[in-house]
């Protein structure tokens, strides 16, 4: 009976698989790359960083304006004709957007730290671009 040795042994690297899977939907080992990040992906990282800064500023603004929530609601009441507390939905939406972008920013920085090629998933690209644009 002949015993064959395996040609290669790959360690699972679960943390790296989760990191590249969540950031760029690259769950398989062969999809990960240590090649240099492309200029387009660097541009997307810059856009992501800009979006992070803008959502942080917007969240800080809505967090600090809590004394003027009533004035904002009165302003909307005078324009629309019905009373509704718009401050809480705006604050919650802003907090959710900031949390999402901050999570992507942390994953991108982890990609840089471990030397993996950054490849942001197209869904994250669209959502971070939408968060940056004014409504």
Strand content: under 5%
Structural class: mainly alpha
Provide the helix percentage. 55-70%
Question: What value does the Rg take, in angstroms?
Answer: 22 Å
Number of helices: 5
Which stretches of 5+ consecutive residues score pLDDT under 50? Answer: none
Tell me, briefly, the overall form: elongated
Task: Spell out the key features of this protein.
elongated, membrane
Short characterization:
The chain is mainly alpha-helical and 135 residues long. It has helices at 14-24, 39-64, 69-80, 87-114, 122-132. Keywords: Hydrolase, Membrane, Transmembrane, Transmembrane helix.
List the helices and strands and how they pair.
Layout: H1 14-24, H2 39-64, H3 69-80, H4 87-114, H5 122-132
Helix pairs in contact: 1-4, 2-4, 2-5
Account of the protein in words:
The chain has helices spanning 14-24, 39-64, 69-80, 87-114, 122-132. Helices cover 65% and strands 0% of the residues. It has five helices and no strands. Helix 1 crosses helix 4, helix 2 (39-64) runs antiparallel to helix 4 and helix 2 (39-64) packs across helix 5 (122-132). The N and C termini lie far apart (71 Å). It is mostly helical and 135 residues long.
